Amino acid sequence: MDDNRRVDSLILLVGSNPLPNYLASMALKPSKIHLVHSGETKGPKDRLHVALSADLGSSVTIDGDAFVDDPFSALAVGDKVRDLIAKCNAAHLHYTGGTKVMSAHALKAFYEKAGRPENASYLDEAQTCLRFDGNLPSRSLSVCGVTLTLDRILQLHGVTQKTRSPINGGPGQTDVQAIATAVLQRPQLASCLYGEKKRLEDSSFSEAKETPCIANDHGVALSAPVIPPKEGMNKKCFDAWCKFMGGEWLEDWVATKIREVGLTGSAEITVGVNCSRAGSERPFEVDVAVIRGQRSYFISCTTDMTRSICKSKAFEILVRARHMGGDLARSALVSLLPGNAVTELQEDVADAWGSANATRIFGLEDMKTWSGHYESQNLGSLKEWLDS
Question: Quick one: CA dihedral 315, 275, 149, 67, positive or negative?
Answer without folding.
Answer: positive
